[in-house]
């Protein structure tokens, strides 16, 4: 639920970067300790430089849980701001400079669809099943996991979340990203024939009752349109031209690509591996272009390129701009609480339970 949605006036769009920079700096200093700006690694350089804390979904959720700031401005996408609202106290307020900054992956699963599938899976005799939702999902899905003994995971802790769930049940229902679920489970030694995909367009998700009864992991048929752009054929050609290239990918990429990659992990993992690598090493990276280009500029002693002939980028992350960030901060200075992200009361408690189970995982 969003209240008081507001967009910058047209005149603000004509301001130069220098003018915006000056105004953002003034607004930031007026708000002082009252304000915390969180920035996801996929944000543009122009925006992320204003973040007090930058990170992946997991790091930003932890930062939100730990801050005392009254205003948290989220430079990321909507589900991240919702997670921050779930984790903060009622007197703290979370804002997103553009409330239309959603996530195509989070949009792949809706609560009614998940509940319908859940009922069918139970009717087929699966009684000990744990739901896991990737953090890229609505607060209603997080609440669903909270009330059904499940938890939230991010790409940083999906392995620990799957282990946690399998200690408590025979089966997992993993949504909305099939690739994170499959790639992580396979790496943990769970064979593909113990996983099925739930295609919501088909009866029984496109499976037989026996398939579902036998499966250890039921994967929702969701995917990220950005990470979908990377593929194994490109790696094959690249390696023919450059035998010393290291391929590092995000686990939202498909299974075939994951099998050809040298490294796979969250954005925080990708940053760490490249940072710790030796000068002169060569890297092809499969994740959003803003992060890859930032790494390229930051580590000029290494060769870093994107694992595609074009630059896949996240259009919704790009909805956060210096213009709407400036407008958001100036409105807050004036006491106008625009673009606040408020998770409905009925979801908060159960969603918090699922998020806290994730934060309690040992990784
Ligand atoms: S990169 Fe993909 S998963 Fe991440 S916010 Fe964009 S659409 Fe969603």
Task: Describe the protein in words.
Helices cover about 45% and strands about 15% of the residues. The protein is α/β, with parallel strands linked by helices and about 375 residues long. It starts with a strand and ends with a helix. The chain has 16 helices and 15 strands. The radius of gyration is 21 Å and the shape is globular. Helix 2 (about 15-30) runs parallel beside helix 15 and helix 4 runs parallel beside helix 5 (about 80-85). The strands form four sheets. The chain has a five-stranded parallel beta sheet, with helices on both faces. Strand 2 (about 35-40), helix 3 and strand 3 form a beta-alpha-beta unit. It folds into three domains: about 1-100 and about 315-345, 3-Layer(aba) Sandwich (Rossmann fold), CATH 3.40.50; about 105-225, Rossmann fold (3-Layer(aba) Sandwich), CATH 3.40.50; about 225-305, Rossmann fold. The structure holds iron/sulfur cluster. Iron/sulfur cluster binds near residues 42, 77, 105, 224 and 316.
Which features would summarize this protein structure in a list?
globular; alpha/beta; Rossmann fold; 16% strand; 3 domains
DSSP strand count: 15
Chemical compounds bound to the protein: iron/sulfur cluster
Q: What do we call the CATH homologous superfamily of the largest domain? A: NadA-like
Radius of gyration: 21 Å
First-residue to last-residue Cα separation:
32 Å
């Amino acid at each position: 639920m969003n209240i008081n949605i507001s967009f910058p006036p047209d005149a603000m769009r004509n301001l130069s970067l220098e003018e915006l920079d000056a105004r953002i700096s003034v607004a930031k200093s007026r708000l002082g300790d009252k304000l915390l700006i969180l920035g996801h690694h996929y944000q543009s350089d122009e925006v992320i430089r204003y973040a007090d804390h930058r990170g992946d979904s997991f790091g930003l959720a932890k930062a939100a849980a730990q801050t005392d700031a009254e205003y948290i401005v989220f430079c990321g996408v909507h589900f991240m701001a919702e997670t921050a609202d779930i984790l903060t106290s009622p007197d703290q307020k979370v804002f997103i400079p553009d409330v239309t900054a959603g996530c195509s992956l989070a949009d792949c699963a809706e609560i009614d669809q998940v509940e319908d599938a859940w009922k069918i899976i139970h009717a087929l005799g699966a009684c000990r099943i744990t739901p896991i939702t990737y953090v890229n999902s609505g607060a209603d899905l997080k609440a669903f996991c909270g009330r059904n003994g499940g938890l939230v995971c991010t790409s940083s802790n999906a392995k620990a979340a799957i282990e946690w769930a399998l200690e408590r049940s025979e089966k997992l229902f993993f949504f909305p990203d099939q690739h994170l679920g499959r790639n992580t489970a396979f790496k943990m030694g769970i064979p593909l024939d113990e996983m099925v995909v739930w295609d919501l367009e088909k009866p029984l998700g496109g499976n037989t009752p026996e398939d579902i009864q036998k499966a250890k992991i039921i994967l929702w048929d969701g995917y990220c349109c950005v990470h979908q752009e990377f593929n194994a054929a490109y790696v094959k050609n690249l390696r023919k031209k450059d035998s010393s290239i290291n391929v590092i990918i995000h686990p939202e990429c498909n299974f075939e690509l994951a099998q050809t990659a040298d490294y796979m992990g969250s954005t925080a993992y990708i940053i760490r591996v490249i940072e710790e690598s030796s000068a002169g090493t060569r890297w092809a990276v499969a994740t959003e272009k803003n992060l890859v280009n930032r790494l390229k500029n930051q580590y000029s002693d290494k060769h870093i390129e994107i694992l595609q002939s074009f630059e896949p980028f996240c259009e919704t992350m790009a909805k956060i701009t210096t213009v709407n960030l400036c407008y958001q901060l100036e409105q807050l200075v004036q006491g106008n609480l625009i673009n606040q992200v408020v998770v409905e009361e009925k979801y908060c408690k159960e969603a918090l339970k699922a998020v806290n189970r994730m934060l309690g995982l040992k990784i």
